[in-house]
Design a protein that fits this description.
By secondary structure, the chain is of the alpha+beta class. The chain contains 11 helices and 8 strands. The strands form 2 sheets. A 6-stranded antiparallel β-sheet has the order 5-4-3-8-7-6, with helices on both faces. The two termini are 32 Å apart.
């Protein structure tokens, strides 16, 4: 009997459940390793998943899923939400994911595209990824202007108060968006930060329609940001191409004018990410 299972399939048959039970009895090392990787893969793809979600998606008995998730949590591969007890990627998994992207031989090619974009629009540009409930700068190229806001590659910024973060929320499925917003921390960074769920959901609907995400003075006063999505073959937003600039140098019209350049760069980077 094959012990390999599809992580992405959510249609479980009785045969899969029987196979999972047999594997649990056999406790073969390879099977255990594969199942652990399948759990990590599913949680990472979902962003957040309950115990029954894991068990159902992977065709595992509840007791087996509970034991595996608890072990992965103890080893910091997963973390558990204190409120609803759902699992999400832990620090070790996030660190490994970022290290993998950083050591990818395509990294220099992505950085070159980002550098060309900065030369074209003359402002700082970022390539971001979503990690849990935060946005992380995977790569970044600074503008030459002395007036600029500096963040290091690897820095985290919030979901609800940044152009990239709002783009990720906007492109989520309704169910995933509802889950994220239910657990999001709506910290008010400035008087312009969207701190009400209904306001953010309305903004996300407009973002989906527009195909770009914009923010001004929401994360930091005097800072404007614009982001476009980088979609995988399933249409999921896996990264963003974004810019930010001082409002003294760029307003909405200026940011809107460079959206085509952001989209061209996003299309060039896409095959170097997925």
């Amino acid at each position: 009997m094959s012990t390999r299972k599809s992580v992405t399939s959510e249609k479980n048959t009785a045969a899969k459940s029987s196979a999972a039970a047999s594997e649990d009895v056999a406790s073969e090392p390879l099977s255990v390793s594969e199942r652990a990787l399948s759990v990590l893969d599913f949680v990472a793809s979902s962003g957040r998943a309950g115990l029954m979600d894991v068990a159902g998606a992977l065709g595992l008995p509840k007791a087996t899923a509970s034991r595996m998730c608890s072990n992965l949590e103890a080893q910091h591969w997963l973390t558990r939400d204190v409120n609803d007890r759902s699992f999400q990627p832990g620090p070790r998994l996030l660190k490994m994911a970022l290290a993998t992207l950083k050591t990818d031989p395509r990294r220099e090619l992505r950085h070159s595209i980002l550098s060309e974009l900065v030369k074209e629009i003359d402002e700082t540009c970022n390539l971001t990824v979503l990690e849990g409930l935060k946005v992380r700068y995977l790569d970044r190229v600074e503008t030459h202007w002395p007036l600029r806001t500096q963040f290091e590659a690897g820095s985290y910024v919030p979901l609800h108060a940044t152009a990239s973060g709002k783009m990720y929320i906007a492109m989520m499925s309704p169910q995933k968006r509802a889950t994220v917003l239910e657990h999001a921390n709506f910290t008010q960074f400035t008087p312009h930060t969207l701190t009400q769920r209904d306001e953010l959901e309305a903004a996300c609907e407009k973002i989906r329609a527009d195909g770009y995400s914009f923010e001004m003075d929401e994360f930091m006063l005097g800072l404007v940001g614009m982001a476009v999505p980088i979609l995988d073959d399933k249409g999921e937003c896996r990264a963003t191409m974004a810019l930010h600039a001082p409002t003294a140098r760029m307003k909405f019209d200026g940011a809107l004018a460079v959206v085509p350049a952001l989209k061209r760069a996003a299309e060039r980077v896409k095959p170097l990410l997925f």
